[in-house]
Design brief:
By secondary structure, the protein is α/β, with parallel strands linked by helices. It has five helices and eight strands; from the N terminus they run ββαβαββαβαββα. The strands form two sheets. A six-stranded parallel beta sheet has the order 5-4-3-6-1-7, sandwiched between helices. A two-stranded antiparallel ribbon has the order 2-8. Helix 2 links the parallel strand 3 and strand 4. It is globular and about 40 Å long. One of its GO terms (cellular component) is mitochondrion. This is Dihydrofolate reductase. GO terms for molecular function: dihydrofolate reductase activity; NADP binding.
Length: about 170
Amino acid sequence: FSLIVAATEELGIGYLNNLPWRLPKDMAFFKQVTTKIPKNVVNKENVQNAVIMGRVTWESIPPKFRPLENRLNIVISRNPSYDLQLADDNQNVILVSSFEEALKRIDETKNPRVFVIGGAQMYRMAIHNPECDSIILTRIKTQVNCDTFFPEINIKNYRLAEHKELEEYV
């Protein structure tokens, strides 16, 4: 699985349980990356990528955009009876109580790519998981107030990819 995140130079990712910026181009990039089915998937019928997020990230998504379309949404909450506040019985959302359970719910034939999309707790758990193979990081160059941060990246575990690799991926 991959982590996908936009962060400041100080690794700030949030403020008051929301994104501290509005970047339409980055949102479009996020959607493109998290919905694109890899070219090597032959039968694309009933196939969609999965996004894993914590409850706070779920709640930060405006209700009209929940669940994130064309992706399996897996929401992690310690409360097993948490109300996802869905308008109908949406099959594209699964509520689980742990990161490990979220990974077990992935069907690699139906969910070829898996993205952890936040928040900070999910990133902390995921970045140390041996199945985490990439971090797609957008750097926010502007100074922004943040109270939530992405964990330090151990550069021994990752390498900086060439831009061409990113282009091929997306």
